[in-house]
Design a protein that fits this description.
The structure is a single chain. By secondary structure, the protein is of the alpha/beta class. The chain has a single domain, classed as Aldolase class I (TIM Barrel), CATH 3.20.20. About 35% of the residues lie in helices and about 20% in strands. The strands form 2 sheets. The chain has an 8-stranded parallel β-barrel, surrounded by 4 helices.
Length: about 230
């Protein structure tokens, strides 16, 4: 398979998601991933409020992008967080469609949007992607489910139909779902995603583990330098 992302000579980027403590931010600042994630969905065990996210963002190194994770949130609430620079990027995990993305871009014209899709099989994924042919997000995130911690059949993403569609509709895609230090190098080698996204894979007993964060980043970066 011809690699779509990253472009020749560019490294696969890293997103450490679900950060909620100052110690999580300190570890991220040490490791310098391209992105970190704040979960702004109240039903999540990793939920942070707007005020908590703002404090954490202020402690984050300027070069690291803060992604806000939402599930069927009101467009105006997401736009406010973007416009107030509490977050840099919105990641949408619910039923948000092309019209939702269009409204968000109208209210927050400079925003970047990641749309998460649950990967079940090739046919349903292609059908979902077709729904964004008129108004696409900037990036897609391909996952087995919101915070499931499980991987999916990566062979689906090796289909030329899928890779061509992703290339047509977006600037790149994030791989998520069941990633950890043990498999992230293999994932990068096989799939060449624009970015890899991890949350439960860098946790111990539900909290971010600095040692697991370091190991994950080390493994991802080592493959990028092969």
């Amino acid at each position: 398979m011809t690699a779509l992302y990253p472009e020749e000579g560019k490294m696969t980027q890293i997103k450490l998601c679900g950060l909620k403590r100052q110690s999580d931010i300190e570890a991220a600042n040490e490791l310098k991933p391209e992105y970190i994630g704040f979960v702004l969905w109240e039903k999540s065990s990793r939920y942070v409020s707007r005020d908590e996210a703002l404090l954490l963002k202020k402690a984050l190194l300027p070069g690291i992008k803060a992604v806000g994770v939402f599930v069927d949130e009101e467009v105006s609430n997401v736009a406010a967080l973007l416009n107030d620079e509490v977050i840099d990027i919105a990641q949408l995990h619910g039923h948000e469609d092309g019209s939702y993305i269009e409204r968000l871009k109208e209210i927050s014209p400079e925003c970047q949007i990641i749309k998460a899709l649950k990967v079940r099989d090739k046919e349903s994924l292609l059908l979902e992607l077709d729904g964004f042919s008129l108004e696409s997000p900037d990036f897609f995130l391909l996952d087995s489910g919101t915070g499931s911690g499980q991987s999916f059949n990566w062979e689906i993403l090796q289909s030329p139909e899928v890779t061509d569609k992703l290339k047509d509709l977006s600037k790149g895609w994030f791989l998520a779902g069941g990633l950890d230090a043990a498999n992230v190098a293999e994932a990068i080698e096989k799939l060449r995603p624009m970015a890899v996204d991890v949350s439960s894979g860098i946790e111990t007993e539900g909290k971010k583990d600095p040692d697991k964060m370091r190991e994950f980043v080390r493994e991802a970066r080592s493959k990028n330098h092969d």
